[in-house]
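Exam revision sheet. Question 4 asks you to relate a sequence to its structure. Input first:
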Amino acid sequence: YQIKMATGLFNLSAGMDMADMAWEVKCREEDMKQRALENERRAIDDARRCVDEKAQQLKALSHQAALIAGFSMIVLVEIHIPNDLNPGLLVTFGCATASVVSLMLIAMLNGTYILVAILRYDCVKRETPFFDFWRKRCESDWQLALKAFGLGVPLFLCVLGLVCWVVFWEHGSGRIYAAALVSSIALVTLMFWFAHTDRKWGHFLMSPEAKLHNPNAA
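Answer key, structure tokens:
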């Protein structure tokens, strides 16, 4: 009888140990599933955050480029050009204004197309990681848009300086020419300041520091 009792207790203890092991395995599996689910949610949130950040940048660039292009078109259409305007000044003014509109349209259209592309990116399935998607499909166009915008703003300031001369050309007063000269000098100074600022921030935005962080990198 004692042997049977000991055997029964041993079997009961072994059964309890096996039940405990099975419970631990089940808990571990559920914990792994929960961790995988949390990692997936975190990856989706990271992808959406990257899309939102790039969308804000593209919207800002496109809006500013469209605004400057609109101002340039208004200047070109609404300005009164004197009949006796110097041909060289007229050609310079027309070329500068057309260049500003062209560069700003390049920046605006590139930014708009990239914005549409990244907003169509599937953050849930993520067949291609957003880092690779941006690097392969968007990075070159983004740099082109930044360069076009960086070239267009100094040209726009040149257009403003040329407007002073075109508007005041038919007035023969020396004071008016002096005012046009002072305005041109101020705009040229502002243009050099912007060129320095654009060189600083333009190089930063195109440098590896400003690029997206690749979570898959070692």
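Marking note for examiners. The radius of gyration is 33 Å.
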